[in-house]
Amino acid sequence: MDDSHWLSGIAPAQSASKKELTDVLLHSSSNDSSLSIRIAADPSPGCGGIAWPAGQVLANYLFNNPAIVANRSVLDLGSGTGLVGLVAAYLNARHVYLSDQAPLLDVMRTNVKLNDQSSRVSVIEYNWGEPKPDSMPEHIDVVLAADCVYFEPAFPLLVSTLCDLIPLPSLSQSSSELTDTSNGQPEESQEVLFCYKKRRKADKRFFALLKKHFDWKQVEDPDYETYNREAISLLRLVRRK
């Protein structure tokens, strides 16, 4: 079978001015199960209102590793359409917070209703570089970020927000132990999964800023070679001491 079967829609054609419904289909690599998420794409608020490839990669990884989010609080940072966070909700996260700027809130609310996840998902405004919203708990177990590296002036703001969300580790923790957690047994008290598509040389500036505060490692994933051909990487971040 063509190993790109589940990536057939990884970069769906997006209209610059048209609202449309899309069913994002996720596949299990270990059995024949699948999950369909209905997404209402709306380009009018900006690029965040449409589906982006790294979001589908991260969503599919979660679907194949549900224990990462099961019974844990989850923040989908820069959520856009809400795809990644909605998958976490379907996988029995304790509660999911979809976050983005104000123009994207209605898009996310629409998609929460389309997928009947209102009881498990909250939509909140969270601007990078600003204090954490009062509507979000102080501690978040899992932070998910997909396709957040795209606007160079926002790079330091995104790093600042990641630092706010993930405090410095205690002396007993070692940031050098970047153990993969796909077995659902995280080594750290908080999990950060960061998926991005390399597009510009300027992306290096973001990772230079990030390196001052975080270490990272490529997540072990059977689908890695497939999406890596699309210049997509899935990383686990750990706060540096």
UniProtKB/TrEMBL annotation:
Which CDD domains does the protein's record reference?
Answer: AdoMet_MTases (cd02440)
Q: Which domain of life is it from?
A: Eukaryota
Q: Name one GO biological process term.
A: methylation
InterPro entries, per the entry: EFM6, Methyltransf_16, SAM-dependent_MTases_sf
Q: Which residues bind S-adenosyl-L-methionine?
A: 52, 78-80, 100, 128, 146
Q: What class of enzyme is it?
A: transferase
Per its record, what are the GO molecular function terms? protein-lysine N-methyltransferase activity
Its EC number(s):
2.1.1.-
Functional note:
S-adenosyl-L-methionine-dependent protein-lysine N-methyltransferase that methylates elongation factor 1-alpha.
Q: What is this protein's name?
A: Protein-lysine N-methyltransferase EFM6
Can you name the source organism? Answer: Pyrrhoderma noxium
Taxonomic classification, please? Eukaryota, Fungi, Dikarya, Basidiomycota, Agaricomycotina
